[in-house]
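Following up on my earlier message about uridine-5'-diphosphate. Here are the inputs again, as you asked, copied directly from the submission form:
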Amino acid sequence: MAQTVLVTGGAGYIGAHACKVLKAAGFTPVTFDNLNTGWEEAVKYGPFFKGDLMNRADVDAAFAQYRPVAVLHFAALSLVGESMKDPGKYWRVNVMGALNLIEGAIAAGCLNFVFSSTCATYGDQDGVLLDETSVQMPINSYGASKRAIEDMLNNFAESHGLNRVIFRYFNVAGCDPEGEIGEQHVPETHLIPLMLEAVAGKRPALTVFGTDYPTRDGTCVRDYVHVMDLVDAHVLGLQWLLEGKGNRVFNLGTGTGFTVHEVIDASRTVTNREVPITLGDRRAGDAVALVSGSARAIEELGWQPKRSNLRDMIGDAWVWAQQPGFSK
Ligand code: UDP
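Thanks, got it. Here's what our run produced:
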């Protein structure tokens, strides 16, 4: 019989893609989502439980109904800019939500936990390659809230035998190449979808945030990873836990960084269209360069990124950008 896993945020961008590959790998992914930022239409690969992590009773009810063997925790607020303006919201929703989920999981005897963390926990470290042993010094409340959850997981691993795999994502991009689901945020803040909306004429222009950074062309450097590769790693992380291999942290990135201008150049090649841009000021909370040392996931998990190149990430997102998308 298929093993059931609880996927918080399964109606969101990364969570929905995870459900697709979890189902393909033989699991039953139960989406737990409050539909605050997610899309019910994106829940296609398993049951849907509408609930809120801030409400412990919802969490307990989901565990009681589905008895999952593991939790994959994607649900979170994730906008760096917003987190700088409203830190309380990030500490409350991300940290309290995770605490309810962790305590609910332990109370239900579900001790396998896969957590979506972020390279934003590393902060701004002068362009060095960031690996899992790098010190964590977040420069925004989003990163700080994720680091706090990592700490919490470590404490519960000690006290209650919780087994956790932590993935620190770099910049996730692209979408399902089969076009069943894609990236859709309201408001959209991410570079690649905003750029493609500008290309498609859905917004006047892309604003480049800062052109005076100490990088090769003055714009920020990021390490982009295809969402399909990223969620493949989660299936491997889940199997790692179910095989009893224990606690581990893995970066998910490619080791190669691209500037904003380089992403824009790649888009011209993929779409054969110009990207209308305006040059703007730096965005608060942005690190100069975030590039992953990802050898550990490849060596230990056997992760094999297949589509994490700009052509596939932008190409898949471009197909999606021309579709009508999900509606509420
Ligand atoms: N960026 C930009 N214009 C935008 C959105 C993003 O120039 O409208 C830049 C941003 O400053 C960063 C990179 O693109 O250097 C990636 O930003 P995104 O918001 O996609 O991801 P983040 O790195 O913040 O997680």
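One observation from looking it over: Residues 80, 171, 189-191, 194, 206-209, 220, 222, 260, 283, 286 surround uridine-5'-diphosphate (CB under 6 Å). Hope that helps, and feel free to reply on this thread.
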